[in-house]
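This part of the workshop introduces the protein records we will be handling. An example says more than a description, so a record of this kind follows.
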Amino acid sequence: MTTVHAVIDTPLGGLTLIARDGSLAALHFAGGKHAPEERGERADIPLFAAARRQFEEYFDRRRTEFDLPLAPRGKPFQLRVWALLEEIPYGETRTYGDLARRLGDVNYSQAVGAANGQNPLSVIVPCHRVIGADGSLTGYAGGLDRKRYLLALEEPAAVDAGRLF
């Protein structure tokens, strides 16, 4: 198994991309909560060029979905939660309770939160789109300022235009 990494610049700071055997396995913001354990050697592979281009398009509001081969590692429950995150449309949010209900039991809310916090592919697997039941911004491994930025970036133009700040 070959693991390699690259660091790309984003409006939110450096983003370390980690690939295993040709698929994106993880990404981490500089100074984020979960630092990558295994990064491998620095490399310039086509996957990283595609990811860099897609992130540029995303931050320029020209891309609403990522189209990259993904290979996150996690426990079966985490993988189920992360699959639900991928279903949250651009510009929309869901609560932890919403996701727990989709998994069959509203009592899973805390477990959903824990799985959400361990998402190794934030932004691409949009864990930033999950908010508290009262609409508050709750934990984000990249920090709440980044979460706030991503949600504002994805706001529909009509909402964004109507804001006073």
Notes: Residues 46-59 form the longest helix (14 residues). The first strand starts at residue 3 and ends at 10.
